[in-house]
Amino acid sequence: MLRVAELLVTLQGEGSAAGCPVFLVRLSGCNLACSWCDTPGTRAPESGTLFTLTEILERWRASGLREVLLTGGEPLLQEGVYPLMEALLSEGARIYLETNGSISLSRVPREVVKIMDLKTPSSGMSRANLYTNLRYLDRKDQIKFVIADEEDYLWAREKVQELGLSYFTQVLLSPAWGRMPPPKLARLILQDRLPVRFQLQLHKLLDLP
């Protein structure tokens, strides 16, 4: 059983597949409390509705889509997410996993596209970053920094350079909604010629889930 906040068809809002139709599985429960969290209603582990693995797979098949976005909350908190990923892969799904970076990726199948946060200082959760997860990322995967102010940007720039992130994976910088003006972040990236991808939350701009 999995506790699910949402099951629906939408557009991928972030990352390298932004703009593509996906079947979204938003799981309930999160172990962090970021200051700019945009899905606070999913944080409680008892929120949402219980679904069986079979029910989720049937909904996905009915969508007619190959692409699946697993998000939360923090999807890796629920043990059932691992058999769900294996079942989806066995039927040819392409999975995108959004994770907050505080839980080991060691059990996530290699084929899954991992979109992992490194929490910036403004989140209040940077102490939760699990840097050993970097060993499980490759060029298809992505590291995301949510930038709320210039301190966040300088911190992210240091991490990109210190850890050589752009050499083995893709790096995304996203302005925190309502906190960092997007043009300002874009100018900072251009000023430093930082080897990252600037992104906006497309689903928010379009008022999609």
Write the layout of secondary structure elements.
Blueprint lengths: L1 E10 L9 E7 L21 E3 L1 H11 L3 E5 L9 H10 L3 E6 L13 E5 L24 E6 L2 H14 L6 E6 L6 H11 L4 E2 L3 H4 L4
Parallel strand pairs: 2-4, 4-5, 5-6, 6-7, 7-8, 8-9
Antiparallel strand pairs: 1-2, 1-3
What does this structure look like?
24% of the residues lie in helices and 24% in strands. The protein is an alpha/beta fold. The model has no long low-confidence stretch (mean pLDDT 96). The protein has helices at residues 53-63, 81-90, 150-163, 182-192, 202-205; strands at 2-11, 21-27, 49-51, 67-71, 94-99, 113-117, 142-147, 170-175, 197-198. Strands 3-1-2-4-5-6-7-8-9 form a nine-stranded mixed sheet. Strand 8, helix 4 (182-192) and strand 9 (197-198) form a beta-alpha-beta unit. The chain is built from five helices and nine strands.
Contiguous low-pLDDT stretches (5 residues minimum) are: none
Order of helices and strands: EEEHEHEEEHEHEH
How helix-rich are the residues, as a percent range? Answer: 10-25%
Q: Count of helices?
A: 5
Based on Cα principal axes, name the global outline: globular
Mean pLDDT, to the nearest integer, reads 96
Largest sheet: 9 strands, mixed
Strand arrangement within the widest β-sheet reads 3-1-2-4-5-6-7-8-9
Q: State the separation between the terminal residues, measured CA to CA.
A: 23 Å
| Total number of strands | 9
The Rg value, from CA coordinates, equals: 16 Å
Secondary-structure content class: alpha/beta
Strand content range: 15-25%
